[in-house]
Write a structure and sequence with these properties.
alpha+beta
Length: about 200
């Protein structure tokens, strides 16, 4: 014989599927709210604490100016007035460093020193420090303050490159590179702003 499901078993199954779908929707919505509301609040709070500690270190000339620098240590204050960015840059580009704010690429020149300095930042997570980096225009200024003073760079170009393009991390002369991911849908692309 053929086994027939009772109507109540079918209703129970429908109820469980509906309940599971609803729970999944709530979970997804919760993760979205957490990513868009709470992680930026956390990064902003971290940035406020970093700035409170770093500004006196800058004024007293005790901020780091040479290697070795411990990961997560504040190294510079980055300001881009045209896109409303004011962030303390920390040493390192690991996930835990970028959760605090923009990160200085270990091995690149320290901002304001001879060579190419690379700073990476999030565009869509945590505080999204570089969320508006694509709005920056050629000729606009980037100011970086370190224990060695205030350094001003002028944007020379802005390009989208493959994440595998090592040229994205090289510059010429005394250049500043600001680098971020492009759109969550294409994690293999990077926006690279170059400034002299």
């Amino acid at each position: 014989g053929k086994v027939m499901k009772s109507p109540s078993t079918t209703q129970d199954l429908r109820h469980k599927v509906r309940w599971g779908s609803g729970a999944l929707l709530v979970l997804i919505l919760g993760l979205f709210v957490y990513a868009k509301v709470f992680t930026p609040m956390s990064e902003n709070r971290t940035q406020a604490l970093l700035e409170k500690e770093f500004v006196p270190a800058l004024l007293n000339g005790i901020a780091p100016v040479g290697y070795p620098i411990e990961a997560g240590t504040s190294v510079a204050l980055l300001e881009i007035e045209d896109i409303n960015v004011r962030r303390v840059v920390v040493e390192g580009t690991q996930a835990e460093d970028l959760a605090k704010g923009p990160g200085h690429l270990v091995g690149s020149a320290i901002p304001g020193q001879p060579g190419t300095s690379a700073i990476l930042g999030r565009s869509s997570r945590y505080g999204s420090a570089f969320a508006r980096l694509d709005d920056i225009k050629v000729g606009q200024e980037i100011t970086v303050t370190t224990a060695q003073g205030v350094h001003t760079y002028e944007v020379v170009d802005s390009t989208v490159r493959s994440a595998n393009d090592s040229a994205a991390f090289t510059g010429e002369r005394n250049m500043m590179l600001l680098i971020t991911g492009v759109g969550g849908a294409s994690p293999d692309k990077r926006l690279v702003v170059r400034a002299l």
